[in-house]
Amino acid sequence: MTAFPDLAPAASASAFGFGMVIAVLGSIKENLSEILGIPKDRIARWLSATHVLLIPLIFLAGLAADMWGARGTLVAGALLAGLGFFGLALARE
User: Fold this and answer.
1) What does the pLDDT read at residue 51?
2) Residue 52 domain-assigned?
3) Is residue 56 situated within a structural domain?
4) Are 73 and 61 in contact (CB under 8 A)?
5) In whole angstroms, what is the distance from residue 70 CA to residue 8 CA?
6) d(CA 93, CA 89)
7) Could you list the residue range(s) of the whole structural domain that residue 46 is in?
8) For the whole prediction, is pTM greater than 0.85?
9) What whole-number distance in Å separates Cα of residue 63 and Cα of residue 61?
10) Residue 91 located in a structural domain
11) How many helices (H) and strands (E) does the chain have?
12) Are 40 and 33 in contact (CB under 8 A)?
């Protein structure tokens, strides 16, 4: 028996949360450019580099899930995403 029925809601919630983080980062590109005084094309390159960096991070997330379990990895990822958005909110000042 597989664990798919047990992990399906967690996988769906993770995919939704991940998509929302990526969408928010893409939508604040112009605001970041204005607030930080950085050209828009440079911000776009940073976001592209972030998307490329996500490929090896998926492997690390799999290792983290093997070490700490799905629940611990999801909680840690949510906390890190929240801290990242909190840092962006503080960067406005």
Assistant:
1) 87
2) yes
3) yes
4) yes
5) 11
6) 8
7) 33-93
8) no
9) 5
10) yes
11) 3, 0
12) yes
The residue type of 90 is: L
Token representation of residue 21: 């983080």
Place of tokens 């005084």: 37
* Calpha distance 47→41 (Å, rounded): 10
Give yes or no for a contact between 34 and 90, defined as CB atoms under 8 angstroms apart. no
pLDDT at site 80: 92
**Model confidence pLDDT, tens digit, residues 64-89:** 888 988 888 888 988 999 998 898 88
Place of tokens 């047990």: 6
CA-based R_g, the chain, Å? 16
* Closest to 50 (Cα-Cα) out of 70, 37, 32: 32
Amino acid identity, position 76: A
